[in-house]
User: Fold this.
Amino acid sequence: MTPTAPVGDAAVDADPRGGDRRPLHGLWRRWSLQTRLMLTVVSIVALTLVASAVGLSTTIGTVLIGTVESNVRTLTVGLQLFDNNSYVLRARTADEAILGTGGLPHGYTLLVQSPTGQTTAATYDEDGIRGLSPRQFSQLASVDPNMAPTTVELPGLGAYRVVSFSAGDVSGLAGLPLAEVDSTVARLVTTITVVTTGGLLLLSAAIAVVIQRSLRPLRVVADTASRVAALPLAQGAVSITERVPAEEADDHDEIGRVGAALNTLLNHVDSSLVARQRNEERMRSFVADASHELRTPLASIRGYSELSLRAMRQGVPGVEETTTSALERIQAQSLRMTRLVEDLLLLARLDEGQELVYGTIDLTALAVDCVADARAAGQDHEWRLEVGDEPVVVAGDATRIAQVVANLLANARVHTPAGTTVTTSVRLDDGNAVLTVHDDGPGIDPALADDIFERFSRADRSRARQTGGTGLGLSIARAIVAAHGGSLTVHSEPGSTAFELRLTARPADPAPGTEPAVP
Assistant:
């Protein structure tokens, strides 16, 4: 059965030549970044220095060996005399040749083959001229006289550089020891090794200091990220206060930019967590308010229905009147619950970009109609209208925009005392149509000002049916305006409250299939 190939990390770490690279790979991964950088730099420098040392030693050794060859040739020529345009040796044996020449260096070795075929060899050292031992003679005589200069290891004498020569009917070999060359090269290698080792130690210390200081901001970033990762961020109120120090998070290098990016990310995450907590609180409040709003009419419906059934079963006198009254109350509560559900459904559809039918809206005429309706409903208020002679035209859903304006006017009527002046104005402002509803009432409670457009937000916390409402009116109004690409804002202080509706003035309907851009 053929074994299957490993998958995953095993396949990646498998060595095609056999074996497993995972232990070495794991060891490399376990080292710190500082250690890996130091090891990499020092290794590259060490390899470079070693290669340079080897090349330098080889080059110098070759030059010195060439110098020895040149000296051997010069000394060999000194053993010869110029006679009848040919070179001949004065002596016919190696001893005589060396003896007849002065100024030879110690270690000079000569092998001479006479015309009669006799081969002799001798060396000159501090003890004078002496013959070679049989082993030494045999090793030297084994060199081919026709070959290029070569190195021969003579037992007891060491390495020799040997050069062949021929003068007339006499030929032979001459050589000088390479002990001095080897000693020079050895001293050179020793010097290079000592200098290289010291340089690598100094380099390692310098790199360690530089890398440690350079990676300090990265360690600070890692520590900050580790502390943030240990925070419980899943739920509840969470605030991330951890940040990379400013001196380690500047833009002077890549690591500083990483620190600055982490701080920016933490700021965004912190803001998101705050928004999430705020949304959770709002959702809990929304669920509680919606449950309360739905519970009240449901309880009323259940109570009136039970009352009617009990009266009918017990045959209470006047049961018809009782039943009729109960059914009327049930109908009223059903309508109230229906309006609440429809408002919630409208908000959901607006959030999804639905529920709008675009057309051309004369904002001036719409304001006139809405103010007329508000004047009929609130005769104890003073209603004013400030519009120009020219119509202000926008593109949008006329029904929904009228709902927004009616809601703003109803809020001004319900939440201000009798005699309050409510002024509605329409104007053009730098290409935008602006409708403002202003009243001189007591203003909005500062504690409520930030949440006035939130769902189920009320000025009257009592949920009174007359003044409290469901708290969805302004949130629906802002959602409608946002769906039209506009804005709805409020500015309030004691004696002055102004809601401003701002839409882009468009004289024609938008193209089919397009929606206004939300600024």
